[in-house]
Amino acid sequence: MPAVRIRRRKAVALASAAVLAGLAVPALAPGSAGATAPTPADARTAAVAAYAAPDGYYDGVEGKTGDALKSALNSIVSDQTKLSYSAVWDALKDTDEDPSNSGNVILLYSGVSRSKSANGGDTGDWNREHVWAKSHGDFGTSTGPGTDIHHLRPTDVQVNSVRGNKDFDNGGSAVANGGGSLTDSDSFEPRDAVKGDVARMIFYMAVRYEGADGWPDLEPNDSVNNGSAPYIGKLAVLKEWNEQDPPDAFEQRRNDVIFESYQHNRNPFVDHPEWVESIW
Ligand SMILES: [Ca+2]
Ligand SMILES: [Ca+2]
């Protein structure tokens, strides 16, 4: 069966990734995928989902809450491979692939499926959106937070421009071709289907970047006028979005692909969205 072959390849890839990342190799139990049957139409997502959150990845967080949990997660997710900004293009073609069309990526804010080859900077292209706006902490695009694909997503060039470096909040008027996203003078509200995705990307960045290695300590706060300070708002709204829009198969597969094939670290809040409330 093709699905079995795919699963075996993924299993080998995961084992290799785990060795590279210094992790214990997870048990490769074909029957451990859980109660949900794979969807034939999306064998690749099913194959990857079978290996979410390998045993041992979160060792050390047991019983911890609040700042202790945050510190433990920082240690875990900081063990990662880092990409160059040019390598991000090909990575996003994989992590954000349209499950219904392997020649396309899904654009984050608009929800549009667009050709992988239409990457660039012109009208009609897609580009590399920093969900944690790179001016918030001024970390740029050298290898580090500016190339961390946990928060880099394909977006329509013009929609990306509308979002700019605005903080996140509810309200505003419709963004042209924004798939239901809204904006006003100082904030951006993504479409409902990715509100939780956006929130969990912000929370990942806050845990991953704690002021080490010369990078700023990124944190969410309750402002929408953060400018170049290393903060993103609004925390209360992001927490609501995390609750309203729990992780789905696309987001979970994306986390697995980043873990297996690129950075070899995970977004803890995709695996455990309940940890947001423990920390913030
Ligand atoms: Ca979602
Ligand atoms: Ca931080």
TrEMBL record:
<feature type="signal peptide">
    <location>
        <begin position="1"/>
        <end position="29"/>
    </location>
</feature>
<keyword id="KW-0255">Endonuclease</keyword>
<dbReference type="GO" id="GO:0016787">
    <property type="term" value="F:hydrolase activity"/>
</dbReference>
<protein>
    <submittedName>
        <fullName>Endonuclease</fullName>
    </submittedName>
</protein>
<keyword id="KW-0540">Nuclease</keyword>
<dbReference type="InterPro" id="IPR044925">
    <property type="entry name" value="His-Me_finger_sf"/>
</dbReference>
<dbReference type="InterPro" id="IPR006311">
    <property type="entry name" value="TAT_signal"/>
</dbReference>
<keyword id="KW-0378">Hydrolase</keyword>
<dbReference type="Pfam" id="PF04231">
    <property type="entry name" value="Endonuclease_1"/>
</dbReference>
<dbReference type="GO" id="GO:0004519">
    <property type="term" value="F:endonuclease activity"/>
</dbReference>
<feature type="region of interest" description="Disordered">
    <location>
        <begin position="168"/>
        <end position="188"/>
    </location>
</feature>
<dbReference type="InterPro" id="IPR007346">
    <property type="entry name" value="Endonuclease-I"/>
</dbReference>
<keyword id="KW-0732">Signal</keyword>
